[in-house]
Specification:
mainly alpha; 4 helices; rod-shaped
Length: 105
């Protein structure tokens, strides 16, 4: 093989390796973008929406508690210890000190 042929194959090899790296970077970027998008999915209801449903009689107190805890769990993310999110009812919330209550309470 001549020197120009070796140079040509060297350039083709470098180009192929560069294209492979570029494809890998694009794939990883898509995966991270998808994960970030999934992490920012808003809760379907606010706690105030759930209170309004309960006050109108559309849902029971038990349904309110379960859905409110689900919303709080979604907003807080998964527990680091793996422990389940404790369920609070309105009486428990009223017993909390003022600094631990949410502004909308």
């Amino acid at each position: 093989m001549t020197r120009s042929t070796h140079l040509m194959w060297y350039i083709v090899g470098i180009g192929a390796a560069g294209a492979a790296v570029l494809c890998l970077v694009v794939l990883v970027a898509r995966v991270f973008k998808k994960r970030l998008r999934n992490d920012r999915t808003p809760a379907p209801f606010t706690i105030q929406d759930l209170r309004d449903l309960r006050d109108r009689g559309d849902i029971s107190q038990e349904e309110f508690n379960a859905m409110r805890n689900a919303v709080i769990g979604d907003l807080a993310g998964p527990a680091k210890t793996g422990a389940p999110t404790p369920m609070l009812d309105d009486a428990d919330e009223q017993a909390l000190p003022p600094e631990s209550k949410h502004p909308e309470d």
